[in-house]
Description:
The complex is a heterodimer. Chain A is of the alpha/beta class.
Amino acid sequence: MALKNWALRKSLWVYHVNAGACNNCDIEVLELLTPRYDIERFGMILVGSPRHADVLAVTGVCTRQAQPRLQEVYMQTAKPCVVMAVGSCAGAQGIFTEAYHMGNTVDEAIRAVDPGAIIMYVPGCPPKPEAMISAAVKAIGYLKELASPAASSGEVGGGVRG
Amino acid sequence: MDTGWILLTFLAAAAGSLVLGLLLRGVDRKVTARVQWRVGPPLYQPLIDVIKLTGKETLMPVTARRTGFLLAPMLALAATGVAAVILWRALLQPEVTFMGDLIVVVYLLTIPALMTILGASASGNPHAAVGAARELKLLLSYELPLFLVILLAIARAGWTFQLGVLAGHTPALYSISGVIAFVIAILCMQAKLGQIPFDMAEAECELMSGVYVEYSGLPLGMFLMARAMMLALLPLLLVMVFWGGLTLSGNVLHKLLGVAAFLGKYLLLVVLVVLIRNTNPRLRIDQTLRLFWYRLTPAAAFAVALTLVGISRGLKWL
Lengths: 162, 318
């Protein structure tokens, strides 16, 4: 089990879900693949299917239209997986909170189908690629804690789970 | 030979080529990263990926045919494993190979592509269906020229269908028709590996990794392992068929030189695959069909004809 957890930390495959984003965060997510940031150094690659993914990078406010799709994508992702809510919108719907077309926030939508989901928040409008790399490193740290013996006593993950 | 030895040989050859293939995939990814001015993942990254996939959940699409969906990756892996045993044995012990092992290997190396088609069709996903259709057309396009150029090497070695004997003969590459055949064989290998420019079945962006779109966890890992083994085995097959395999004779120095020459040829082919993949855009399926049917198949037939003329007139260089 420890080996598999180690391998998971070393090879996080990211699937990018757009749940009604303005495309600004999406550009920043793609920035991670460029030579300047090169997230593949950590074994992370962008994959085309949620079935291959270990990380769901969710951008956007989660509109009413997008919410059931986001939930479906989460359910179709092979577990264990981490959800990364990228940007202010994905974190708490940003300036669109009161708008008529909002569903629940991204974390509420995902908790509705899986109360135990691991969700991380990367604030910013848009967040810098450095912030996303930092979030990825924190996710790796959290998965590491999850594998340690303390995990059984429920002591882990303060702050990360939000 | 008793059963224990057979099992041991099988495990050693299959596991060896698996690890070798995954490392070569790592070289591939590293070189790709360097070409794009990136640092890239560590060399053993594909190994980690496969270990990770064994620990992931295996999801079953509601539209999938369960048996075909799960059986396909297993058969793909098993076929490449058996091909690995025959190939390595023909390389290291050419005197104990059996009649027609070349034909068996060529057919075994077709099975991963067939199983990809089967698995993709069984998954019931439209993206996978498009990918499977493309994979099938790709298979139809590259198999004929590949058989033709292998036939050329067989003819040059005095119509032997034994890999060990074939590798012991004067390499087919040292002739005009042999060079033409070798270039065609390299293109066929690229297509068989599903590498750019012939990766239209997988097509990460337009088809969401096409044929593999519904696979997760261990079955996906099995397909990746089978593909990695193909990367280790196809250059080996080409070296043995066209370039004389491994020659171990004479004193220690000669033996070392023989091993070095073999490794050089082998790595050259692997590097060629990586470089072709990094310097070409993806072809459409119709362009691929046109390339293989209208250009490479006639060229292969021409090379075979040249060889036959050369044999009948006693001109070795033709």
